[in-house]
Amino acid sequence: MEIERRILLMLKDGYTQDQVSHELKELEIRPNSVSSVEKILKDIRKEYGAITMFQLACILYDDNYFDDDED
């Protein structure tokens, strides 16, 4: 699973950015620093044209991004 999707799934499950970073470290996935997570999220927001995380969540919901989620 690509890191961007993994991060979005963790945020969907209620993780904070700090918790996402910690989980990535536990799974030995790199990059895993808080600043790396923030940068990845900034890039995702830019890709979807979202200004805020809330707006990104709404866009992803409208696009059925999580419909094939196999948690």
* Annotated CATH topology: Arc Repressor Mutant, subunit A
Name the average pLDDT. 94
Domains (count): 1
Structural class: mainly alpha
CATH class type: Mainly Alpha
Give me the secondary-structure topology.
Layout lengths: L2 H10 L4 H10 L7 H15 L4 H10 L9
Helix pairs in contact: 2-3
Please describe the structure with a list of short key phrases separated by commas or semicolons.
single chain; 71 residues; mainly alpha; Arc Repressor Mutant, subunit A; globular
Report on the architecture of this protein:
With 71 residues, the chain is mainly alpha-helical. The chain has a single domain, classed as Arc Repressor Mutant, subunit A (Orthogonal Bundle). The protein has four helices and no strands. Helix 2 packs across helix 3. It is globular. The two termini are 12 Å apart. The model has no long low-confidence stretch (mean pLDDT 94).
What is this structure, in a nutshell?
The protein has 71 residues and is mostly helical. Helix content is 63%, strand content 0%.
